[in-house]
Amino acid sequence: MKKTKQTYTQTCCTVELEEALKVLEGRWKIVILFHLFSAPVLRFSELRRAVSGISQKMLIQQLRDLEKDGVVHRKVYPEVPPKVEYMLTKDGAALRPALKALKSWAGSRKMPSSIKKNLLVKQTFR
Fold it and tell me: Which long-range contacts (CB under 8 A, 24 or more apart) does 54-57 make?
């Protein structure tokens, strides 16, 4: 049997990328994922303390979105007060290399403000 190469069109590739970006869109989702990369299981209160600047409402919303997209698993214990834990799913853990690469890329783009000023001055006078 002859194997045929599967060809990808530009549209096909961008559709898959857009779907992936929809899962990660939002100010806090990537930050939440990085905290879940560092600990296998985090309670809601631990995540709230770890992600500084996020409101409780926004954290709940972002976690629910990640759960709906199959990136995070939510486990609720029938206790009083309620105990809720979050952990990455297999798909969530698969994001680690991509987000690590994104973090490295972002770090490589950081320049001290003095260098940025020098570059701006040089570009202005060219």
Answer: 54/28
Query: How far is Cα 107 from Cα 50, in angstroms, rounded to an integer?
Result: 21
Separation of alpha carbons 106 and 101, rounded Å: 9
Any idea what DSSP says for residue 74? E
Region of 77 (left: φ > 0; alpha: ψ -120 to 50; beta: rest) is beta
- For residue 113, pLDDT over 80 is answered with no
Q: Pull the structure tokens for residue 95.
A: 């994001």
First-to-final CA distance of the chain: 61
Q: Is the pLDDT of residue 100 over 80?
A: yes
- Between 91 and 121, the higher pLDDT residue: 91
Q: What is the pTM of this model?
A: 0.74
